[in-house]
Amino acid sequence: MRKPMIAGNWKMNKTAEQARSLVGELLPGLEAVQGVDRVMCPPFTALMTVAEMLKGTEIGLGAQDMHWEASGAFTGEVSPAMVKEFCQYVILGHSERRTYFGETDQTVNKKVKAAFAIGLTPIVCVGETLEENEDGKTADVVTRQVHVDLMELTAEQCKSIVIAYEPIWAIGTGKAASGEGANKVIGDYIRGTLKKDFGAEVADAVRVLYGGSVTGANAAEFFGQPNIDGALVGGASLKPDFIQIVQAAKR
């Protein structure tokens, strides 16, 4: 059985002080839910603050990105070791990184390998644009992303990875995919590619989350699907709604 996971991607929101207030508000409700991996992914500037608040809890901490190099002349970047100092997880290949900052499947692959090299668990994001979806290219896009993003990993590494299927047309738009539609993409194209590249055992072991306008009101529709193991949550992770989503994953 794959353990459910709910990860909250705060994106570029919350100062360190605001993060302290939000975590203080959410923590009691999150700690009360057992049997679900719960992860918070604040901005880099709030990682130290949130890490201190999560000490002694079972709530995980993740960064929203990192560079693949160990150190060097990369002004403004954050290294794997800097992330590892505070975090257990790192989000890689988010569509906003791909769209606004030129990330490619090849750079995501470098970051995935760097994360494993230092003992971080990558949460790798894949998903198609609205245009690609409407042109019938979902299978091609998602298959390519999974194949290239995870290239040269071992089967054992791949088993511990987390993949987030985030149809780009559903992120922050209020227009979520249907549970049935997301389940089909994950089963046919994500698990299908994992099976082809790494074998059936790996395909069955990998946790795949859904992301894209997930709320407390619609979460159960997704979590009732056999291929969906939780959610990567954006806007709702900044509100008490996040606790409802975690509770829905438990049910």
List the helices and strands and how they pair.
Layout: E1 5-9, H1 16-31, E2 37-41, H2 47-54, E3 60-63, H3 80-84, E4 89-92, H4 95-101, H5 105-118, E5 121-126, H6 130-134, H7 138-149, H8 155-160, E6 162-165, H9 179-198, H10 200-205, E7 207-210, H11 219-223, E8 230-233, H12 241-250
Parallel strand pairs: 1-2, 1-8, 2-3, 3-4, 4-5, 5-6, 6-7
Helix pairs in contact: 1-2, 5-7, 7-9
Can you offer a commentary on this structure?
The mean pLDDT is 96. The longest helix is centred in the last third of the chain and has 20 residues, at 179-198. Helix content is 45%, strand content 14%. It has helices at residues 16-31, 47-54, 80-84, 95-101, 105-118, 130-134, 138-149, 155-160, 179-198, 200-205, 219-223, 241-250, and strands at 5-9, 37-41, 60-63, 89-92, 121-126, 162-165, 207-210, 230-233. Strand 2, helix 2 and strand 3 (60-63) form a beta-alpha-beta unit. The protein has an eight-stranded parallel β-sheet with strand order 7-6-5-4-3-2-1-8. It starts with a strand and ends with a helix. The chain is an alpha/beta fold and 251 residues long. The chain contains twelve helices and eight strands. The protein has one domain (5-250): TIM Barrel.
What is the CATH C-level name?
Alpha Beta
What order do the SSEs take from the amino end to the carboxyl end, as H and E? EHEHEHEHHEHHHEHHEHEH
- For the record, the CATH architecture stands as Alpha-Beta Barrel
At CATH level 3, the topology is TIM Barrel
Strand tally is: 8
Q: What count of helical segments does DSSP give?
A: 12
What's the domain count? 1
Helix content: 40-55%
Beta percentage is 5-15%
Over the alpha carbons, how many angstroms does the gyration radius reach? 17 Å
Q: What is the rounded distance between the termini?
A: 14 Å
Sheet with most strands: 8 strands, parallel
Uncertain parts: none
> How are the strands ordered across the major sheet?
7-6-5-4-3-2-1-8
- For this structure, what is the CATH homologous superfamily? Aldolase class I
Average pLDDT score? 96
User: Oligomeric form of this entry?
Assistant: single chain
* Silhouette: globular
